[in-house]
């Protein structure tokens, strides 16, 4: 989120590409261009497509009894989109007359992707293998990057717009997940990945490190 604030302060009120955007955008547009396939891919960040993906993830959470995961998707995805719209009016950066910073398409698609990644950190039983989880997360991330690059290629956004959009969605989803973990009981199958992420970072609860003593 700090990155978004920095970029917002730098590009506030501007109506043209900065030095970084000029360098990156031109190369992307020359390499890819506004082809029909690119236009199809960027539409994955549109409201209908994001809504379908969000509902599918929401239903999957309910089907696997991950109520907290369902709440995460239901809250974080629209919250990220709403925050982006607020930031657009505050920053007032435009491209061809339209507010562009941060990219709403990028924010929406990455909100779904980050929510999926959070849920994959601590999947329901039977556990999904780590290899499968990594592959799924990598494919989802690649789709998000493709949408972001496509938005630059079709001249809908500057490159820094898409970076800011991804940063906003990542921050909103992670803050929502950690808040749910703190507010709700850590017990139960609906647990999100806040505690699990802490464990992976080495901050394991004391009881995990304890072992039963062998009988004499």
Question: What's a concise summary of this model?
Answer:
By secondary structure, the chain is an all-alpha fold.
Counting DSSP H or I runs of 4 or more residues, the number of helices is 10
**How would you sum up the global shape?**
globular
Terminus-to-terminus distance? 55 Å
Radius of gyration based on Cα positions: 20 Å
Are there runs of 5+ residues with pLDDT below 50, and where? Answer: 197-216
- Can you write the helix and strand succession as a string? HHHHHEEHHHHH
Summing up helix and strand content along with how strands pair, one would put the structural category as mainly alpha
Oligomer: single chain
Major sheet details: 2 strands, antiparallel
The fraction of residues in strands falls at under 5%
The level of helicity is: 55-70%
Strand order of the largest sheet: 1-2
Mean pLDDT: 84
Q: Kindly give the count of domains.
A: 1
Number of strands: 2
Tell me what the structure shows.
By secondary structure, the chain is mainly alpha-helical. It has one domain. Helix content is 69%, strand content 2%. The chain is built from 10 helices and 2 strands. The protein has a two-stranded antiparallel ribbon with strand order 1-2. A hairpin with a 2-residue loop joins strand 1 and strand 2. The longest helix is centred in the middle third of the chain and has 25 residues. It is globular and about 50 Å long. It starts with a helix and ends in a 7-residue tail after the last helix. The C terminus is likely disordered.
């Amino acid at each position: 989120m700090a990155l978004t604030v920095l970029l917002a302060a730098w590009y506030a009120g501007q109506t043209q590409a900065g030095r970084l955007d000029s360098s990156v955008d031109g190369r992307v547009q020359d390499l890819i261009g506004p082809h029909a396939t690119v236009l199809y891919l960027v539409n994955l960040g549109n409201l209908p497509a994001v809504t379908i993906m969000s509902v599918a993830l929401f239903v999957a959470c309910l089907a696997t009894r991950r109520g907290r995961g369902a709440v995460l998707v239901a809250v974080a995805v629209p919250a990220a989109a709403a925050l982006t719209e607020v930031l657009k009016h505050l920053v007032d950066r435009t491209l061809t007359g339209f507010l562009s910073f941060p990219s709403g398409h990028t924010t929406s698609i990455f909100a779904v992707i980050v929510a999926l990644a959070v849920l994959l950190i601590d999947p329901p039983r039977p556990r999904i293998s780590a290899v499968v989880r990594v592959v799924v997360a990598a494919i989802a991330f690649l789709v998000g990057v493709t949408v972001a690059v496509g938005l630059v290629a079709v001249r809908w956004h500057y490159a820094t717009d898409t970076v800011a959009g991804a940063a906003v969605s990542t921050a909103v989803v992670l803050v929502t997940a950690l808040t749910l973990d703190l507010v709700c009981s850590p017990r139960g199958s609906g647990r999100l990945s806040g505690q699990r992420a802490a464990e992976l970072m080495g901050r394991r609860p004391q009881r995990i490190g304890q072992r039963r003593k062998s009988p004499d």
